Replication restart protein PriA (Algoriphagus faecimaris), 839 residues
Amino acid sequence: MQSLFGEEDFSPQTASLSFADVILPVPIPRMFTYKIPRNLLSEIQIGARVIVQFGRKKILTGIIGKVHNKAPQAYEAKPILEILDIQPSVNPLQIRFWVWMSEYYCCHIGEVMFAALPSGLRLSSESKVQANPNFDRENAPYPMDEREDKILDALEQNSELSYEDCEKVLGIKTIHPILKSLVTKEAILIFEKVQEKYTPKIETRVRLTKDFVSDRKSLETLFEELAKKPKQESILLKYLRDVPIFQSPKLNEKGLDKAKLLEEGDSESSLKTLIKNGVFESFKQLINRIGEVEPEKEAAKLSRSQTQAVQEIKGHFEEKNTVLLHGITGSGKTEIYIQLIQEVLESGSQVLLLLPEIALTTQIVNRLQQVFGSKMGVYHSKYSDNERVEVWNGVLSGRFSFVVGVRSSIFLPFDSLGLIIIDEEHEASFKQFDPAPRFQARDAAIMLAYFHQAKTLLGSATPSFESYYNASKGKYGYVQLTSRFGDSALPEFHLANLAADRKKNLLKLDSSRLLREKIQEALGKNEQVLIFQNRRGYSPYIQCEDCGWTGQCVQCDVSLTYHQFAEELRCHYCGYKEKVPSSCPACGSTQLSTMGMGTERIEESLTLLFPEARMGRMDLDTTRSKYGYQRILDEFGAGQIDILVGTQMITKGLDFGRVTVVGIWDGDRILNFPDFRAGERAYQQITQVAGRAGRRAEKGQVIIQTRNPEHSLFEKVLKGDYDEFFRQELIDRKKFFYPPYVKLVKITTRHTDFKKGEKAAIALHREMAKIPVKKIVLGPEKGLIGRIKNQYQFESLIKLERSGATQTLFKEKLGEILQELQAIPDFRSVRWIVDVDPS
Ligand code: ADP
Ligand code: ZN
Ligand code: ZN
């Protein structure tokens, strides 16, 4: 990591390195150079948090990104005021990774820092006041009033005051005008004091004192003494019930949570008496929010093809950094991961396993926990701030040498990764849309692995075209698994022709005859059914039958989704909602009808068709709570649900043996992805959801309902030849200049005023056209959704040659252009959003 210290490979302790570049949480695309005061030289470390003055009046907390000896040319460097960390919070590899991310994804390194640190560790929090060191009170140019003097007096006693302290000093609540005046007179500085929001969890526990454990007699005597003190006796009995020390005296050491001991209504004062009399002792203990789990199962014995895949993967790793494991659904990729993870952990390196959205894949997490127990940390998107900090600290301390996590886990403080695995690597949810950094976690992870000199394994049944392309060019190693574990067969596909059924009057509540038959068959054999529809709510919109009115969001150019249960129309883009009107707001007609099917309505119609079946629904609306998803999965696993209707949540990683029928409610909707990736996405989505069927003995059945059974894509999916499909699609990608042949950058210009937004987008377009690299600039066009939350959207799409030099130059120039445009008064309030590798 020496390169971080500038060209001279000096350790930062060397006296000649007297400047530090500090990462600050401000929207300016660079670090800021500060002078390192002599007395702090020996303490300065990359990754440590520091306090610095920013501008004339602000004090900020930042992280040291670089130490060097080049004085800035444009300004005189101010000194670093304070170092907060003895142990750096962030390691040099992470900083290198942040720098790369900000450059590659065209965002500010402060934004990366903000995304990377869990908010529990995040820096600025409380505003504090300190005396301005450059202020000479004796020779102040302005007179101070009495209250101002009082504050300054207090600051001579204390190096800093909180706002609350100031209120106390003055005995009044309205201190802002006084502080403001003091700031204007340059007598004080207001700064954000770093306070970690993280609060450790501490429990009070009690246990028997030593004598009573080692000597059975004394316990008997004690019971005799307590015979007339039933309240104390009750506590003692309860303790012995919960902590069976006769079976194992060692159990007494851990004791029992005091709250638990008293939870059945025993008296606290009696417990106090017992403690006073030396029967019990109480002690405090730091509790891990993330509990300890003992490994309970061995890794499975690999099948022959799994063993061979492991060998091939390791073989490729000898020469290549990245390997793509292309294994059909149910081929047993998880056990292959387990084998590799074990080997890397034994060699002393760390492992990171990325999953698309952890809540969606608890099955795999449970399986891994059985094998790895508490060595494994889970970085969950539904974890609280405090829990996230514990995972972070667990990685720092070495408690977790292996982490399973969602995309943000690439920011954890690993220092010696040996392997990163990305499961379901084709998943679009690895890309972060908002806010910046708009990174693709798979791509970023490959870069992270490179910094650690680690290996990356990408796993998927339907690889992304980018990865498959790299594998076909030999850049990545390629390993294939073509049969399911235990030789269960791949499911059988059927197309249900909705148009034909309609003609023959066979459609019932929008379900085809074939789907109904297959469901009926499955229910008869006590098997389970999954129904996939990627649209939550009751119906996508409601429409007036008389005048054609549809409910539109007031802030966005989209129609409102009808949610029957809540009796509301909701915008899925901005969250706007309103009550369902009883008559048409345009013409007054009461003939309002619901159009199209969301999961809520499908659940309702299947209930009508199969009244004896037990229904379940899994979508964003039914899984909002922390364990909502888990509860539905548990019920489904326990066979308490016969038919489960769900959005893409049910397509990922579910492994339930009794699912034999998968229905794709609206196959046509899947085809209409508004993007050059439509084909790729449709293929992936259908294959993934189909892969949930027939994972054990029974062969699965997949029914795709469609009005276009002739569509060529269905034919390709049914054929199941991914390679052929890929090669055909590539022809178009090449012809029309799309990835993987070019790199895309999308820039969205946003403004509340249509004209102003358009003008800014055109100005940007004109400037970009001048950048001297090989490229195609498309747009600006009104966004796919013209307006979101009252902001008009204009999009430019840039197709860049795949060369690294082209991209670097383009991004550099783009940064300059945006800064210049932003400086134009007319464009001050315009927002520009740069999305590199959009998906
Ligand atoms: P994939 O992730 O490739 O779709 P899974 O890893 O979920 O497949 O494996 C499919 C099923 O086969 C799971 O139920 C898993 O427990 C089982 N399985 C896979 N490999 C083994 C093995 N070596 N021994 C026993 N069961 C296995
Ligand atoms: Zn109407
Ligand atoms: Zn809206």
Summary: The longest helix spans residues 804-823.
